[in-house]
Write a structure and sequence with these properties.
about 0% strand; about 80% helix; single chain
Length: about 210
């Protein structure tokens, strides 16, 4: 059984997160048209659109159903966030040609792509840090494979870009742990306040 308050925090600001990630996907669709294979780019964007609609529907159902069993809602959120992370993680592999770009163009496009994803990871801190599993389920597949791929290219420019963004991802994870602790402590305080309010109510004392 998962903590209901934790899951409510995940879903509470999820609409804003979905809009932000979809806007990022829209920017990627526009920015990579000159170099990406049209069928691949359109398929990626269509898949992302379907995923966004699915996440909106799940969130709507969460707020319109009782939550006697919280595990399905949590696991659904994890699966959908992981899928989103995988879709972002594929971009550097499927949207950017490996052999037709100059070194400058390759570094530029990879850098812009990682900038988009880094912004999304930063924006997801407040929503996804309610659960370390959820945060990792999005950030790791979205960023780590691309960074390792750039490092493996061997030249100093790709390697520096991949290493720098990978370090940034690790820093964001550390920050997410601190935010998670704040959420956890806040949840304990709320639970104690509810118990105190109940005890006062049972003794005929009402709080204004």
């Amino acid at each position: 059984m998962y903590d209901l308050k934790q899951i409510e925090r995940l879903y509470r600001y999820s609409y804003l997160s979905f809009i932000a990630t979809f806007f990022g996907a829209l920017l990627v669709f526009w920015f990579f048209q000159p170099i990406a294979e049209p069928i691949i780019l359109k398929s990626w964007f269509a898949t992302f659109l379907i995923l966004t609609l699915a996440r909106i529907i799940v969130t709507w159902r969460f707020y319109n159903n009782e939550h006697s069993d919280t595990e399905p809602w949590f696991m659904t959120f994890v699966i959908l966030s992981t899928t989103s992370g995988i879709l972002w993680g594929l971009t550097g592999f499927i949207l950017i040609p490996q052999d037709t770009l100059t070194l400058f163009e390759s570094v530029l496009y990879h850098g812009m792509l990682l900038l988009f994803i880094a912004a999304l990871i930063s924006g997801s801190l407040i929503t996804y840090s309610a659960s370390k599993m959820v945060y990792l389920s999005f950030s790791v597949p979205a960023m780590v494979p691309q960074c390792l791929m750039l490092i493996s290219k061997g030249d100093q420019y790709h390697s520096f870009l991949g290493g720098f963004v990978l370090a940034y991802t690790c820093v964001m994870f550390v920050i997410s742990i601190y935010i998670h602790r704040i959420f956890t402590d806040n949840g304990k305080i709320e639970a104690r306040n509810e118990l105190l309010e109940l005890a006062l109510k049972n003794n005929g004392i009402k709080l204004n």
